[in-house]
Write a structure and sequence with these properties.
6 helices; about 50% helix; Arc Repressor Mutant, subunit A; mainly alpha; two-stranded antiparallel sheet; about 150 residues
Length: about 150
């Protein structure tokens, strides 16, 4: 499994929106400047995030994007699945697979791949967007804990 640039950038966008959340919509231009991602590429990413319900978007002068819910309510795995599809390491384990493997009943490696699939999904679902925000803020000296 390899996470694409869109998947990686989607996480960055979601973290950026969470860190800079004031309750107002945030313009793509601002995200672009902070993240070093072109507006054109960001438009593709936020379009998918918006259609999936992870973001709220508004057009116009005061328009932009913001999170649809609190950062603690997003699992990293859900964000990645929206951008990447199923995270299964092989096609026959993919939830969306319409072509089940004819060798599944006697496949010597299916248990191995199934175990890897479980580990991947458990790991990405263990973290929330808030966890990544907290890590980012701690790395950048924004840790206000007492």
């Amino acid at each position: 499994m390899k996470i694409s640039t869109k998947g990686r950038y989607a996480l960055r966008v979601m973290i950026d929106l969470a860190i800079h959340d004031t309750g107002e919509y945030i313009a793509l231009k601002d995200i672009s400047e902070r993240q070093g991602i072109t507006i054109k590429y960001l438009e593709q990413i936020v379009s998918v995030l918006n259609k999936s319900g992870l973001l709220k978007s508004m057009r116009g002068n005061n328009g932009g994007h913001r999170l649809a819910k609190a950062p603690k309510e997003y699992k990293v795995g859900d964000i990645l699945r929206v951008m990447e599809g199923d995270l299964a390491p092989i096609e026959c384990l993919a939830v969306s697979s319409d072509n089940p493997c004819p060798r599944a009943e006697f496949c010597a490696t299916l248990n191995f791949w199934s175990g890897l699939d479980n580990v991947i999904n458990e790991y990405v679902d263990k973290f929330t967007l808030q966890d990544l925000v907290d890590q980012t803020q701690a790395m950048n000296g924004y840790d206000y804990s007492i």
